[in-house]
Amino acid sequence: MAEAERIIGTPGTPDDGGERTVAPGASATSGADQQSTADARPGRGRRIAVLFAVAAFAYALDLVSKMIVVAKLEHHAPIEVIGDWLEFHAIRNPGAAFGFGGAFTIIFTLIAAAVIVVIFRLARKLYSFPWAVALGLLLGGALGNLTDRIFRSPGIFEGQVVDFIAPKHFAVFNLADSAIVCGGILIVLLSFRGLDPDGTVHKD
């Protein structure tokens, strides 16, 4: 255990992100002791601040880009960015990310809302900086597309998402979709690494 703590770092120190190591088949604490230990560890406030800062940045970037696209690009010819390999082409998408599932707009709206709720619940026990970044990307992206679902035509909860990034031979998407995908990839990598949102590292 001492060797594991030396490699991973002591919980709560500035350079380790508050990570804890748990050996296979064992738990660091249990019951009330686990809760008191989690409450005693510093750093959760900083991680939550990172989560919401990343989310706010991703949301603002998506919102501003869509405002520009609607004002300047919608109902106009596509703009070539890298020849015909990458264009800015404004479309309205009733489906999920990358244009899939156009017949299930309300369902995707409810899923986005559920994802936001889950992220807020996870934030209560968040001690990992990488997880804060990943969840912030997911939250910002989900809020970006949910805003379209609520406020854009044809109506509340059925609004069509503004997409405009159009690579050749690929679906048209937006910055919110990109944030969601990046956050999802980061979560997969963290899961393979064995890092949990509460900072616990499971070593095989």
Characterization of this structure:
52% of the residues lie in helices and 12% in strands. A three-stranded antiparallel sheet has the order 2-3-4. It has a two-stranded parallel ribbon with strand order 1-5. Helix 3 runs parallel beside helix 5, helix 4 packs antiparallel against helix 5 and helix 5 runs antiparallel to helix 6. The longest helix has 29 residues. It is globular, with a radius of gyration of 20 Å. The chain starts with a helix and ends with a strand.
Summarize the SSE layout with pairings.
Blueprint: H1 2-8, E1 20-22, H2 31-40, H3 44-72, E2 79-82, E3 86-93, H4 105-123, H5 129-151, E4 161-167, H6 175-193, E5 200-202
Count of DSSP-assigned helices: 6
Gross geometry: globular
Oligomer classification: single chain
Estimate percent helicity. 40-55%
Kindly report the spatial arrangement of strands forming the biggest sheet.
2-3-4
Strand content: 5-15%
Major sheet, described briefly? 3 strands, antiparallel
In brief:
This protein is α+β, with helices and mostly antiparallel strands. Helix content is 52%, strand content 12%.
List the defining traits of the structure above.
52% helix, 3-stranded antiparallel beta sheet, 5 strands, globular, two-stranded parallel sheet, 6 helices, disordered N terminus, 204 residues, alpha+beta
